[in-house]
Amino acid sequence: MRTADPLHLRLLRLLRDEGPVSRAELGDRLQMPRPRLLAELDRLVALGLVAEAGLAASRGGRRSTLVELDPRLRFAAVDLGASSIDVEVVNGRLEPVAAYSEVADIRSGPKVILHRVNDLLHKARADGAYETLHAVGIGVPGPVSFRDGVPVSPPIMPGWDRFPVRELLTREHGCPAVVDNDVNIMALGERHGGVAHSVDDFLFVKIGTGIGCGIHLGGEVYRGTDGCAGDIGHIQVDAHGPICSCGNAGCLEAVFSGAALAREATAAARAGTAPALVERLAARSVLTARDVAEGAAEGDVTCIQLIRDGGRQVGRVLAGLVSFTNPSMIVIGGGLAQLGHVLLAEIRSVVYRRSLPLATGNLPVVLSELGARAGVAGAAVLASDIAFGEAS
Predict the structure, then answer these.
(1) Phi and psi of 77, rounded to 5°?
(2) What strands, in cross-sheet order, belong to the sheet with 329-333?
(3) Residue 2: which pLDDT band, with cuts at 50, 70 and 90?
C-alpha cells in the first residue's frame, strides 16, 4: 500500500464525513491556496472520486461551487464473526446501499467463508447496489498482520493462518482491499458514527466469543509493530484458571467470554443454584450468554453474580490500561454487551476504584451505540481510507 498524502486524505475524509462543501470553505479549512485546491479537485474529478454538486449559498460575493464525493462511489464492508457474516455495500458517505447477514462458522476455513462473502457481494451487484467496487474492507476475529493483509495464528480460526485474504479479495473484485481484526474495525465504526464520535483517545472493548481491545489514540487506531496491539483477551488473570484456546491457562477470555459464561451457567444449572438456568437447560439442553442475561433480568442471584464476576475480571485488566494510556472514554461492545448495565456497573466500579484518580476523574465507561453494526461501519471507514490513499 502506498503512503497517502495527508492533505489529500483530509480533503476526501472531510467530504465523506460532512457531505457537500463549497470550494471556498474547503480552501479555508484545509488552508490550501486556491490554485492548488482547484488543480487537486480537477484531478479527483478525473479519478471519479469527486463531483460538482451545484452552487453554495452566497458568502457576500460570487457563489462558490459545492463539491461532494462522486455519488457512484461504492465500498464493500465485511465483518466476520465466529458464527456470522455481515456484509454491507455503502456509498461515499458510508451510508448503506445493501446489507446481508447470515450464520456461518469461521472454523469452516477461509475458502468456504470467503466464497460466501464473494457470493454476497456478487448478489449485491446483481441487485443493483453497485456497478464497480472501489475498495473492500474486512474484519476477522483474530490477530492480523495489517501490513501483509493476512491473519496470523488466530486461535479460533483453524486453517486461516497466513491465508492471503487481502490478495484474494483484491483479485476477485478488482479493487484495493484491506484486512484488520474485528475489534479494530469496531473501534473505527464507533469513532465514525457512534458514541465515540469526535473522541480522539478511547478504548473499544469487544466482549464476545473472544475479548479484544481497539486502541484509538491521536485520532487513529494504534495497531503496534506487527498489528497485534490490544489483544487483551490473552492477558492472564488467573494462573490456575481454565485452559484458553491459545493454549495458556487463565487468560481473560478463558475466564469471561461467551463460551466461558455458557460453561459457568451450565455448571450452575446442573448444581441447581440458579433456578432460572435450571428451567432453561431443561427446556433447551444448551445455555448461552443470553440465558444468563435473561436470568439476571428476572432477578436470579446466580446469574447476576456470574455477570459481576466477569465484569470484575474485565475491569481489573482495563484499570491497568487506563493508568497506562489515559483514554478519554471506554466503549464496551460485542455480543456480551447485551448483559447490559449489570456488567457495565461492575466494570466501572473496578476501573474507578483501581485506576489513578487523575485518569478516571472524567472517564465515561459506556455501551456501544452501534451494537452489532459497529464492525461493518468500521470496515466501511477502512475501505474508504484505502481507496482514498491509493488515489493519492
Answers:
(1) -120, 125
(2) 220-221, 211-217, 202-207, 329-333, 365-367
(3) very low
Residues 187-210: tens digit of each pLDDT: 999 999 999 998 999 999 999 988
State the Rg of the chain over Cα: 23
Distances (CA, A) of 294 to 249, 279, 341, 363: 30, 12, 13, 29
Q: What is the CATH number of the domain that holds 29?
A: 1.10.10.10
Is this structure's pTM higher than 0.90? yes
* 140 and 241 assigned to the same domain: no
Q: What is the pLDDT of residues 28-44, one digit of tens each?
A: 999 988 899 999 999 99
d(CA 130, CA 75): 9
Indicate if 318 and 343 belong to the same structural domain.
yes
- Residues of the domain holding 11: 6-69
Which residues touch 107 (CB under 8 Å, ≥6 apart)? 156, 157, 158, 159
Other beta carbons less than 10 A from residue 202's beta carbon: 23
| Residues above pLDDT 70, as percent of the chain | 96
Query: Helix H segments across the chain?
Result: 6-18, 23-30, 34-46, 110-126, 165-173, 182-193, 252-255, 258-271, 275-284, 289-297, 301-325, 340-354, 357-360, 374-390
Distance CA 342, CA 226 (A): 35
First to last CA, the chain: 11
Tens of pLDDT, residue by residue over 339-390, are 999 999 999 999 999 998 999 999 999 999 999 999 999 999 999 999 998 7
> Rounded CA gap, 302 and 391, in Å?
56
